[in-house]
Each structure stands twice: as C-alpha cells, then as structure tokens.
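Dear colleague,

As promised, here are the two records you asked about, laid out in our usual form so they can be pasted straight into your sheet.

NAME FIELD: protein one
SEQUENCE, THEN STRUCTURE:
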Amino acid sequence: MGEGGRLAQGVRAYGLIAGMWIRSTMAYRASFAMTAVGSLVVTGLDFVGIMLMFSQVDALAGYALAEVAFLYGLSATSFGIADLALGSMERLGRRVRDGTLDTLLVRPAPVLAQVAADRFAPRRIGRVVQGLLVLGYALASLDIDWTAAKLLLMPVTLVSGAAIFCAVFVAGAAFQFVAQDASEVQNAFTYGGTTLLQYPPTVFAQELVRGVTFVLPLAFVNWLPASHVLGRPYPLELPGWVAFASPPVAVACCALAGLAWRAGLRSYRSTGS
C-alpha cells in the first residue's frame, strides 16, 4: 500500500474511533455540556490573569492589551485544535509501560491513528471556543489596516499553527517510546509552548526567542505572522517574508514528527510479559 493509501486508511480509522467516543459522550448530553463549559471557563482564567495584569499597567513590553489578546487568541485557538485532535497522544507512555500498546499493534489500522483517537474528548472544544472569543475581542479592539495578504494570513496562520502543535504532540509521543514516563516532558513543550506564545516576544531573552524560532519553531504559530498583521518589528530582526513561512514550516515539522514516530514505533519491544 502506498503512502496515499496508508494516509486514507489512517484518516478513516481515526474518524471511526473518534466517532465512537463522540457517540459515547453525547449519550450524556448534560454532562458533555457542563464539561465543555467548564473547560472554556478554566482555560479562560489564563486570559483573566492577563487582564488583571493590564489593570495595573498600560503596556507589557510595549504591547497593549488588545495586541496581547491577538497573540493569545492565535496561540490558544491553534493549540486548542491540536489538543482536540491529538491531545490523547500524551497517554502513550502509559500504554508502553503496561503493555496495552500491543493490542493496538495487532489491529488492522495504523497505530498513530488509534493512539490519537483513543478517548477522543469533545469537551476540549471549549478551549477552541475560548481562543476564538479572545481572538474576536482582539480583532474588534485593534485598528488594523487590512490588506488581502493580512486577511489571507489569518486562517493560514491558525491552520499552520495547529499543524505545528500537532507535530509537537506526535514527536513528544515518539519520545515516550524511549523514556516511557515522559508525559510531563511532552506537556512542557505543548501546554508550556502555548503559554509562552501568549506573551510578546519582547518579554523574553533573545536566546529563548532564537530557540523557539530556529530549533522548535513555535514562533511561526503566532509571533511572526502577528508581527506582520500588527505592523510590529519582527523578532530577531528577521526579514518580512518569514511572516508567510508558517505553512512550509508546518509541513516540515509534520514530516520530521512522522519520521520520529516511525523510529519510535520500530524501537518498541513490548514489556516482555
């Protein structure tokens, strides 16, 4: 079977497994509604903390509240989409430790699709909604000189950012084949990464900004595209075209994450029990 056939098989398997969990969740609609609203409220407390900070200051490293809200909205929405799609990947280490990953290996479906869709949680849609609400507030508050390029950049940035976070989820899961108990390390780059991106790059040391630009390219999730939309100077004095580089960066990240996943899966030797 070629790459296209395996991809189609994986998407189909993911859809079937996720659909099963959605039907299971929707059997208790009131519970789903409460957990989704709870997720929205809990994640929203992050932005409430930022608003409280701005009640004491007029700007944060030169950025006004609406501009920080713009960064926050882009990051939170992109991460929310990735977390909804692949948030279950962090459970892989547990499966490796207790040997239950073996049951996935004997099924006629790609292991990555099975792990990603395992215990699919529709309640995570609350994080996406919360990010979109903050992004909507930012767009309503900012006086942006819209051009065709800026309008196109908005959806492209959200999709590319979600793909970059998805790649981080997969790469982190691949690392758990070796480390086994490394979910917190993975969370440091996923949940920690989105928290980092909620603040302006001018807050952080240049070495950290270089790291999340050239090593783990999270800056392409929002910092660089947002610099173009907001008319802000680019971090590290990078050229203007980097604002439009998120799609190829996302493709490269996904390709590297796929290679890491294959390497990790090949190295798996079960528990021996």
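NAME FIELD: protein two
SEQUENCE, THEN STRUCTURE:
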Amino acid sequence: MRLLLVEDDEMIAETVLESMRRAGYAIDWAQDGRAAELSLGNDVYDLVLLDLSLPKKDGIDVLGAYRKAGGVAPVIILTARDAVDDRIRGLDTGADDYLIKPFDLDELAARVRALLRRRTGQKQPVYAHGDLTLDPAAHEVTKSGEQLPLVPREFALLQALIEEPTRVFTKTELEEKLYGWGEEVGSNTIEVHVHSLRRKIGAEEVVTVRGVGYRLKRI
C-alpha cells in the first residue's frame, strides 16, 4: 500500500511518516498544494492524508480538484480547523474522514486500516502459495498453520511477491513498493530484507533470478 502525506509542518510530517513506515506502508510527502496536485496526478496512491492550511493551494481546493478529476483514493483530512462548518465542507468536498490536530498516531493508523479495508471491498483477499498464507487485513502470515513473526518490511516484501507469485521483481520495483520518496535505501537493503524473510519462511521460498531479481518458488 502506498500513501501520500500532504503536510507543510515538518515536525508533524516526520512523526506521521515514521509512524506509517513502522506500520509497513510506503509513504510519500508533498509539502504544499501544488506539489500535492502533481503527486496525485500520478494515480498511484491507495490513501491520502491531507492537511488543509497549505502553501500555494489550500487543501480543500486540492481535494475538490482531485475528486473532479476522478480521483478515488480515500482521503483523511488532518487539520487544526475544528469548526463544524470546516468539517462539513471537507466531507462534502470528498473527504472520507476528518481528524483534528493534535491527534493520536494509533488512532490515525486505525482509521487508515479501516479505510483501506473498505476500499478493497470490505474484505481483502487472503493469499496462499504452497503452505504459506498471507492475510493483509489481519496482517498475519502463516506457514503450515503456524503464525510467523514478520516485521512490517518483511510483510510488505512477502505481500508484493505473493500477489504475483510467478513474476520476477527487480530490486528497483521492490524498493518502490517498500519505500516512499526521500527514504534512504542502501545498495543492499533489499538483499537484507530477502535474507531476513528467508530465515523466517524458509530459504527455498524466495528464489533469486540472477541478474534480474526475486520471485517466489514455483509450485
């Protein structure tokens, strides 16, 4: 899942970015309304976290233009504007949820999960590959019925592979799925995640295709 955070306050942004990344999401950051519009034009986001008081273009105007252009990703407004009229305007313009600053990060994460579940049709599919199963909604992976303790990056890596188990993913493609803009990604980061994932699910489960990338084993 890839999120977009639109927030001009650097301190708030860094806190939200860290929290969402710990939860396993790839998240990008736009710092003003114009940058947000350019980012949303790429149509790659599963959910948007949108401040209203933005430089260059107000958040309400960004939201209205996004909906008029056919944008369908859920939008959670994060703002200090707590007047009832502001909340009504935001929801009427196309927001799916409205959270007043300062907010609790755990509550934000719960609202993100709820909207993502709703977007995928109430219930996300449970993926199975051999004796591996991955349940995105429950954030659980099992092998032969035994639950495996994957950290968020390992979970995101396995989810990318298991969604398209016959496809060979390049390192660059996996980096794009696991990381947002501006995150530092070391030259061997994906190899480290693959090594860690193999230790937990079995070395034979993830196949290295030399000179190309990685895929799940054939079954």
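A couple of things worth noting about protein two: The chain has two domains: 2-119, 127-216. Residues 5 and 29 are 5 Å apart (CA to CA).

Best,
R.
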